Amino acid sequence: MFDMYTEVILDYYRYPRNYGRLDGANAQARDLNPLCGDEIEIYAKIDDGKIVDIKFSGKGCAISQAAASMLTEFLKGKTVEQARNISKENVLEMLGIEISPVRLKCALLGLKAAKTAVYNYLGEKMNEEI
Ligand code: FES
Predict the structure, then answer these.
(1) Within the chain, how many helices (H) and strands (E) appear?
(2) DSSP string, 64-102
(3) Fold for domain 2-129?
(4) Per-residue pLDDT reduced to its tens digit, 65-104
(5) Best mutation site among 38, 65, 91, 95 for ligand 1, i.e. most ligand atoms within 8 A of its Cβ?
(6) Ligand 1, atom 3: nearest CA belongs to which residue?
(7) Among 6, 50, 118, 123, which residue carries the largest CB count within 10 Å?
(8) Which helix (H) or strand (E) holds 104?
(9) How many other C-beta atoms lie within 10 A of the C-beta of residue 1?
C-alpha cells in the first residue's frame, strides 16, 4: 500500500498537474517553508464564487510539489467556501502516506498558499494556523 502511494507522489512530482503561472488570475499567494527555503505560489481565477481555474508554481521536495498539485486538482471547480473549509487532514488524506512531523510543513505549503490566496481575494485575514 505504502509503495503505491509513494509511486503516486513521485508521479505528481515528475509530472505536476496544473503547474505554471495562470494568466488572468485574480487570487494569488505565495508561501515559504522556512526550514528549507522552498516556496509555492498559487494562482486562481475565481468567478461568481467558484474557482474556475487554478495553478501553482515554485520549487520544493516531492511531497510539497505533489501535495500542491493534488490540491489544485481538488480545488478546481470548487466554491470559495469549500476552499475555505479544506483542512490539513484533507491534504494529508490526498497524499495517503504517513507524514512525519518534520515533513508536515512540506505537505501543507500549498494549502497555506491556496488558503491565503482565497482569503486575499475575499479581502479577509486568514484566522487559522496552518
Ligand atoms: Fe522544502 Fe519539503 S524540503 S518543501
Answers:
(1) 5, 3
(2) HHHHHHHHHHHHTT-BHHHHHH--HHHHHHHH-S---GG
(3) Sufe protein. Chain: A (3.90.1010)
(4) 999 999 999 999 999 999 999 999 999 999 999 999 999 9
(5) 38
(6) 61
(7) 118
(8) helix 104-122
(9) 7
Model pLDDT for residues 16-41, shown as the tens digit of each residue: 999 999 999 999 999 999 999 999 99
> Which sign does the torsion angle of CA 19, 23, 29, 30 carry?
positive
Q: Which residues line ligand 1 (CB under 6 A)?
A: 33, 36, 38, 60-61, 63-64, 106, 109
User: What's the pLDDT band for 5 if we cut at 50, 70, 90?
Assistant: confident
Largest CA distance in the chain: 42
In this prediction, residue 2 has a pLDDT band, given cuts at 50, 70 and 90, of: low
For the chain, the domains span 2-129
Q: Which three cell numbers stand for residue 98?
A: 504517513
Q: Cα torsion for 96, 101, 103, 104, to the nearest 10°?
A: 70
Taking only Cα atoms into account, the Rg of the chain, rounded to an integer number of angstroms, comes to 14
